[in-house]
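@channel sequence for tomorrow's demo:
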Amino acid sequence: MSQFSISITQLRDMMLVAGYDEVVERLWTPGTVVDTHTHPFDVNALMVDGEMTLAVEGRAPRLLRAGDTFQLAAHVPHAERYGPQGATYWVARRAVAPDSGG
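structure tokens (generated this afternoon):
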């Protein structure tokens, strides 16, 4: 499926060594919108197909296409909008302690 020089298995091996807990493939249907939310884990992802717009609190929205990467720290509010062909990305996740609010 991937036109990249790295496979999801190779990415998984690299990310596990780097301290991530898992690597999963996320498939999104065309036009999906995910309103502002957070995750209890850090994210390091590689877009492999389609496109998405990632809106992170306090920053201009970013259009991501195949070959682009993105990172998000745990508990950072963000929203996602997927393009007309949907999107696929491989994402490494690393669990962190709950946000105690200071």
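heads up for whoever presents: DSSP finds one helix and six strands in the chain.
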